[in-house]
Design brief:
The complex is a heterodimer of chains A (about 350) and B (about 375).
Chain A (H helix, E strand, L loop, with lengths): L13 H5 L12 H15 L2 H4 L14 E8 L5 E2 L2 E2 H14 L4 E12 L4 H18 L2 E10 L7 E10 L16 E4 L5 H9 L17 H10 L3 E5 L5 H13 L2 E5 L7 H10 L13 E4 L4 H10 L7 E7 L6 E4 L5 E3 L13
Parallel strand pairs in A: 4-5, 9-12
Antiparallel strand pairs in A: 1-6, 2-3, 4-6, 7-10, 7-11, 8-10, 9-11, 12-13
Chain B lengths: L9 H14 L4 E7 H10 L9 E8 L1 H4 L2 H11 L4 E5 L13 H6 L3 E4 L3 H10 L4 E8 L4 H14 L4 E8 L1 H10 L7 E5 H7 L5 H7 L3 E4 L3 H17 L4 E3 L11 H10 E8 L3 E10 L8 H4 L15 H5 L31 H7 L13
Parallel strand pairs in B: 1-2, 1-7, 3-4, 3-5, 5-6, 7-8, 8-9
Antiparallel strand pairs in B: 6-11, 10-11
Helix pairs in contact in B: 1-11, 6-7, 7-12
Classes of the chains: A alpha+beta (about 350), B alpha/beta (about 375).
């Protein structure tokens, strides 16, 4: 992450340079609003649809069912090890779309900025969004900016919405877990939540913990290509693996048992969790997915995950059972069992 | 040596559990004093591996749980005042007072902040000279040294805008109160390892002798707890009653001498109300005369507060080991971690929360025997 933004990477940096900070008029719809779009967002996100600058983007999606999703981002701090609010906003919505099995195509981006927000930070955020979108092969085709008075926001909030197209005949979803299915995770748990926490309140844990913020649609695609027996894909964001599994257990009216020892956790994340009394199974991820597949497909799904650049630490966590429907249990390392309930309250606010 | 994974080894745990089953010939009731131990027992399913004759009774050693309602109400009153930055450990924010919790005060505009160390509150006081910074100093002997250090540092630095709302509790008087209460069933104690790492365990020697009760200083990882139980059962079966240290990697007989020195300087022993239990003589600490200026109760006029407990809450009986959390009529019904009636349902160390969070419901369970 560059400390000073590279204005020269944008085609016409004049306007942002005139105003080192966001002023109310940047959201007013007048000249400064237009300049912000023309000199900052457009050069960063450049694509044909956006360049029309119409009131709405006019798109020609391929035929098929459409998966549509929206998410808002209020993470604090805006920049954290392994990412910033910009890539988080792009990847977050990409992942929501990808978990339905769709290939994400188009995103919109809405910014709510606080008066006085440094223009340099906005440039950095836009650059990171553009890079994330480019790498994921999606286009940001619509946008909006509003500015609130100083003290009425916290720098920058972003909403992204987007859609993708589903392959014909694909039916997956959180209600489709079947007794006997295998439960897989694509990598280590808790990286994003602990990365955010480690830079908040001056907590440092010795070694740097980086967010796992990443787009998951290509991994989802590989798993779906590897086996037709995928029943559920889910990205365990807020509330972590525990909350995602509880939702699946409730919606599928099935029980889930995981083996605590099989949950991959980075040593630094484990240590930080011990220190703060947190359980990695509840800590947020932004670049991991859970897959629930028929038992005979478990090996193929695991191999597909491991073959993906983001899936080196993938593991089989446990299985779906007809016992204790709606409940998630863990086998503990010493041979006991415990219930993993839905989390009550907020363990870590404003992590995404 | 990483000091964690070694003490969670499943194979060794099962071996010690087998040894405990082998030596246990009759029913014994053992109390683990500390809430951290209760949490570890329930989280890891340690009790599921013990012989049915052994009964673990959860003790009063959860600092959040025994902090009196009146003190929480005082905290709410102080935190709501304009110009105050009220600092607390995160656990205390959801503990219900008579009229809400600290989260509610925060949502209504109070400046309530979670800190990870009382020294962070001292730093806040230095950085905000126009504000009154108050730290909510609760807990047992374990958290006391850092709290004492914050007051000591503030005084040495001459900070006029820092104060501490103190409600410190001491373990030995609680053990005495439990052993002398009518109907007591406890036959041995697992003493709280972290408390003893500060205080040592010399003060437990007369308790073990007077009540003919084994006391085993015990840690928090699964193997620590199995070993503590094994030694307690061994003593009970042999008819012995001594103090044993099963947590030697952290505890010596005299504890942490520099910490005890600062505790003796900053605090003095006082009578304390224990939530759900009542007044215990000489069972806590308050700021000593030399540090009384830093007492938030003195600095803020919050003495005329009327506190009222929920009539449905049985946390007192739970804390004294007279009732298991899931035997309480309100457990999981009127009282859940979402809407706790008492502190034992709030704190991560509270027995009720441990039971609820790890699924120990009274209904025919598929897990455990809670």
């Amino acid at each position: 992450m560059a400390d000073s933004p590279d204005f020269n990477s944008l085609t016409c940096p004049a306007a942002p340079r005139d105003y080192p900070n966001i002023v109310i008029a940047h959201g007013g719809g007048g000249r400064l609003s237009a300049e912000l779009v023309e000199h900052l967002f457009l050069p960063a996100f450049r694509n044909e649809t956006l360049e029309d600058l119409g009131d709405s983007a006019v798109l020609h999606p391929p035929p098929g069912r459409v998966a549509f999703s929206t998410d808002s981002f209020v993470v604090r701090p805006l920049f954290f090890p392994g990412g910033c609010i910009g890539d988080l906003a792009v990847n977050g919505t990409i992942n929501d779309i990808a978990m339905s099995g769709a290939m994400p195509l188009y995103l919109s981006a809405g910014f709510i900025l606080e008066e006085g927000f440094p223009m340099a930070s906005l440039v950095r955020i836009a650059e990171r969004m553009a890079k994330a979108a480019r790498e994921a092969g999606v286009q940001i085709v619509a946008g909006d900016t509003k500015v609130v008075e100083r003290g009425h926001g916290d720098g920058c909030y972003i909403n992204t919405s987007g859609f993708g197209v589903l392959p014909e005949g694909l039916r997956i979803g959180p209600a489709m877990a079947q007794p006997g299915d295998a439960v897989l995770i694509s990598g280590t748990a808790g990286d994003h939540g602990m990365a955010i926490l480690s830079v908040r309140e001056g907590l440092e844990f010795g070694s740097l913990i980086e967010s796992d913020c990443a787009p998951l649609h290509t991994m989802a695609r590989r798993i779906l290509d590897a086996t037709p027996h995928v029943h559920v894909l889910r990205d365990p964001t807020r509330g972590g693996v525990a909350s995602a599994l509880n939702e699946i257990a409730a919606k599928s009216n099935a029980g889930i048992v995981i083996d605590e020892r099989n949950l991959p956790v980075q040593p630094a994340v484990q240590a930080a969790c011990e220190l703060l009394g947190l359980d990695p199974v509840y800590v947020a991820n932004e670049g991991k997915l859970l897959a629930i597949v028929a038992p005979e497909a478990a090996d193929a799904a695991l191999a597909a995950m491991k073959a993906h650049p983001l899936g080196g630490n993938a593991a089989i966590l446990g299985e779906v059972t007809s016992r204790h429907p709606g409940m998630v249990l863990a086998r503990t390392a010493i041979g006991g069992t415990r219930v993993i309930p839905m989390q009550t309250g907020e363990q870590l606010p404003r992590i995404c | 040596m990483k000091y964690l994974s070694e003490f969670r080894d499943g194979e060794i745990a099962r071996r010690i559990a087998g040894e405990i089953r082998r030596i246990t010939t009759r029913h014994w009731a053992i109390m683990e004093v500390c809430g951290g131990q209760t949490h570890s027992i329930i989280r890891n399913g340690i009790d599921q591996l013990l012989p049915p004759e052994l009964e673990l009774i959860h003790g009063p050693g959860c600092p959040v749980c025994v902090t009196p309602l009146e003190v929480i109400d005082k905290a709410l009153a102080i935190a709501a005042q304009r110009g105050v930055i009220f600092c607390s450990f995160g656990d205390m924010l959801r503990v219900p007072g008579t009229g809400g919790d600290l989260f509610r005060v925060k949502s209504e505009g109070g400046d309530v902040r979670v800190v990870y160390s009382p020294l962070d509150a001292v730093n806040l006081a230095r950085a905000n000279p126009s504000k009154e910074v108050v730290f909510f100093g609760i807990g047992f002997e374990t958290t006391a040294p850092a709290n004492a250090m914050s007051v000591y540092a503030a005084k040495r630095e001459g900070l006029k805008n820092f104060s501490i709302l103190v409600s410190h509790m001491l373990v030995p008087p609680a053990i005495e109160a439990i052993m002398t209460s009518p109907g007591n069933r406890i036959q041995a104690f697992l003493a709280a390892g972290h408390v003893c790492s500060v205080m040592g365990y010399r003060e437990y020697l007369p308790l073990a002798a007077r009540f003919r009760t084994p006391i085993v200083v015990t840690g928090f990882e699964p193997l620590d707890i199995f070993e503590g139980i094994r030694r307690a059962v061994g003593q009970l079966e042999r008819g012995e009653a001594s103090v044993e240290n099963a947590y030697t990697r952290a505890v010596t007989i005299d504890g942490n001498l520099p910490a005890r020195k600062i505790l003796a300087e900053v605090f003095e022993v006082t009578d304390r109300v224990w939530r759900g239990i009542g007044v215990l003589r000489k069972s806590g600490w308050r700021l000593s005369a030399a540090y009384r200026d830093f007492d938030a109760e003195v600095r803020f006029a919050v003495s005329n507060i009327s506190s009222r407990e929920s009539s449905l809450c049985h946390s007192g009986e739970v804390l004294q080991g007279a009732m298991k959390p899931n035997q309480c009529p309100a457990f999981g019904k009127e009282c859940t971690p979402r809407k706790p009636l008492g502190a034992t349902m709030v704190s991560s160390e509270g027995a009720c929360a441990a039971y609820y969070n790890h699924g120990r419901f009274p209904a025919p369970g598929m897990v455990g025997n809670g």
